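Continuing the series of single-chain predictions for the mutant panel. This is the parent chain; the variants come on the following pages.
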Amino acid sequence: MLKVLSFLRAYKKPVYIALFLMLVELFVELWHPLLMAKIIDDGILKNDLSVVLIWGGIMMGLSFVGFGAGIINSFYAAHVSQGFGYDVRKSLFDKVQSFSFANLNRFPTSSLITRLTNDVSQIQGLVFMGLRIMARAPLLVIGGVIMALIVNWKLALILVVTMPLLFLFMVWLMGRGVTLFRKVQEKLDAVNSVMRENLAGMRLIKAFLRKTHEQNRFAKASQELKDNTIGALRLIELTMPVLLLVMNISILFILWFGSFQVTSGEANIGEIVALVNYATRIMFAFSVFSFILMNLARAKASSSRIVEVLEADVDLLDGEGLPLHKDQFQGSVEFHKVSFHYPDTQVEVLKDLTFKVKQGETVAILGATGSGKTSLFQLIPRLYDPTSGAVTIDNHDIKRLKLTSLRKQIGYVPQESRLFSGTIHENICWGKEDATIDEVIEAAKAAQIHGTIENLPNKYDTVIGQKGVNLSGGQKQRLSIARALIRKPKILLLDDSTSALDLQTEGKILEAIKELSCTTFIITQKISTVMVADKIILLEDGCIVDLGDHHTLLHRSELYQKIYDSQHHQEVASNG
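Parent structure:
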């Protein structure tokens, strides 16, 4: 909690102003019962109208002061809470951007979304209440008891006895509430996860008639959220009845014993009225506590979830070496006894890989599903680090290179074509933010998508639907390729990113890539693509079973021969 609240340091001045104004409000509220007692005892009971007018005017003046202080306090409280929320969200987002894939495996997407939105909102609300009413409530209780003791210490002892009991009850309640509300936030994560998966896979759900199944899955997650929320709220709602019962009993005792003191002349009626007034205000402050308690419990649970993200150790640290400029990169890549397994598992997906690729060479990686092709790709731009061995570029261990300078020289087209909200022009410029329109068109032409774009009504200003729903699979792949080519990378990684393209279009793209003179890695299942590669790496169960060009492997590798023969026969059959 303290780590999250440390973001308030940037708002020291408005925080102090808000707290000062809150104290002004509190001062006004604590003095009103004393002034009322003065009016009753010296004015009403003695039939002295001047006393009533003078002290009544003072009460009214103080009321206006308190009103003004409250309005300005609300302004500063809102300013601080909104700025605080912005800073926390920004820090969380920046932290997530620095996460490695291993970190992202620990925090599911749905959970991160909840932490960035709902959890931050809980803390934000707590900050606003803290500056507006939270600190005021305990001070009102303490101040009310002190003022009651000044008015009549014997009767005020009733309040002195009951206050600690109520305080201990609420401390116990808050401890239980934190645990319960943490479970509520976790169930909210689960609901968000189901909703996200459902919306993302809506076409598949409709195609497979899984509507009822998804409804039941959502109903189950939603029911668990409902049950946990009800359980937490039931506990918190116990506060109000207990507070009212104890405080009303205290007021009855004050009236009961006060009546004897008035009869015996030990107390004035104004004093009794003031004590009842203080007791009522204390009761109101404790009732505010029940509301604050619920928010404090939720905020504490949320803050621990936020801190988990902020304090997460990022395992991919930036290299300590000097950044290399583009003209210093050549693009030769070497794997030296590289093995790799994913976090939280000991099963190695890559085993003792050793190979070298010269600058400008095209390397095709061929293998069955699960053989480790994509895992190999992810080691080159340091999306993961190898568990043993070393990956070097131009004889530099990539762990020693600055991540920014390394990744700027790599064009990566993932297996799933991921497009972003915005225009076609903006999506291609993802590869190079400051690209000119001529560079965008050049990249689109190289990716064989320029003609298609020119036929669209708004051409390069055409807005892409969510995840590119208004584009075909082949168009999305070509846009992804254009996004990688626009940066003219020294190393290009194509992860089965031409699977939706016909052979002619794919051939033109590969010719355009050759003109870039970049080192190219291609994951593919097409023999036609493999045949034009300078080297072919055959992977099986994470091991290199053979390495060579097409003619070499065709003569000496039985696995390669089987793959070649199966596809060759399919082509003959389709052409026949």
